[in-house]
Design brief:
Elements: E1 6-12, H1 16-27, E2 34-41, H2 47-54, E3 59-64, H3 69-79, E4 84-87, E5 93-94, H4 98-108, E6 113-122, E7 125-129, H5 135-143, E8 152-155, H6 156-159, H7 172-183, E9 186-197, H8 211-228, H9 230-233, H10 239-260, H11 262-271, H12 274-291
Parallel strand pairs: 1-2, 1-4, 2-3, 6-9
Antiparallel strand pairs: 4-8, 5-9, 6-7, 6-8
Helix pairs in contact: 7-8, 8-10, 10-11, 10-12, 11-12
Length: 292
């Protein structure tokens, strides 16, 4: 049996209906030397039966008690045999050219992480985001949150020294790939290869179940990543740009949190130093006027 070039990892939890779309998007890939690793993170629906009924030797299936996406992805990395690792969320999908476009790039730049474009699907509205060809501009795009894990292809030689933080359920992708980008060469593809489907049940919304805990997650993942990679980031941008990104991340969290719990969002806002307050306070007041 030929060793697969690509390992595609899907973590999933109670998403049987959405999972089918994701899996089928792998099955119809133009490039066929791949393995699909599905990690069932304690689902209570019929996810396992669906996967077993596929009876496909290229699909590896693992079950674990519910421990979160980070833990599931780490399981997938550990079980993978492909030279390149890709990640697919169970509510999204790949376009048929996804792997073939990566394979073309690998032939010329085999040691680079690769980033392609993505199509956002939101209640009938479609938009596309392409990575900038300039490295600095592309890193800024990633820092500003334009891409999740799916448009990336990582050489396993790089992944070996990087794992997801099992304690994170928000910003874990940011925490994972920003150090890879700033410390290694990467290549961008001016081509859309995947679709992200926006919906009310996306896992990211979990961060607002407990807003104070969600803010701690933001600090541990996004803000800590910016701080830990500060020296490397200074090679691509100045101090003010880094601070602006940090301020925007905090501001956006507080404003979105206010839609769920204004009192708690205000409390978090008032606990921040002045660099965060002067921009968020007026916006919170406006938001409050809309809510009441």
């Amino acid at each position: 049996m030929t060793t697969p070039l690509f390992s595609i990892i899907i973590p999933t939890y109670n998403r049987r209906r959405m999972l089918q779309r994701a899996v089928e998007s792998v099955l119809i890939q133009e490039y066929d030397n791949w393995e699909l690793i599905i990690v069932n993170d304690g689902s209570t629906d019929d996810t396992e039966k669906y996967i077993q009924d596929l009876k496909n030797s290229k699909i590896k299936y693992f079950y674990q008690e519910n421990k979160g996406r980070s833990y599931s992805r780490n399981i997938g990395i550990g079980e993978s045999v492909g030279a390149y690792i890709c990640f697919l969320d169970s509510d999204d999908e790949l376009l048929p050219e996804y792997l073939s476009e990566f394979e073309k790039t690998i032939l010329h730049q085999p040691n680079n992480t690769i980033l392609a474009g993505v199509r956002l699907m939101d209640n009938g509205y479609t938009s596309e985001i392409l990575p900038a060809l300039n490295k600095k501009e592309c890193i800024i795009q990633c820092l500003e949150g334009y891409f999740n894990l799916m448009p990336f292809c990582f050489p396993k030689t790089i992944i070996k020294s990087n794992r997801f933080n099992n304690e994170l359920y928000y910003g874990e992708d940011f925490h994972f790939f920003i150090p890879i980008l700033v410390n290694n060469d990467f290549t961008t593809i001016d081509f859309v290869t995947s679709k992200v489907h926006q919906h009310s049940n996306r896992t990211i919304n979990k961060i607002f179940d407990n807003i104070s805990e969600g803010y701690i997650q933001l600090q541990k993942s996004v803000i800590q990543t910016l701080d830990n990679n500060y020296k490397q980031l200074l090679l691509f941008m100045d101090k003010k740009e880094i601070q602006n990104i940090k301020t925007t991340k905090v501001k956006d969290y507080i404003l979105t949190a206010a839609k769920y719990n204004y009192t708690m969002a205000s409390r978090i806002n008032n606990s921040q130093d002045i660099a965060y307050i002067h921009k968020t306070q007026l916006l919170l007041q406006r938001l409050k006027g809309l809510i009441q």
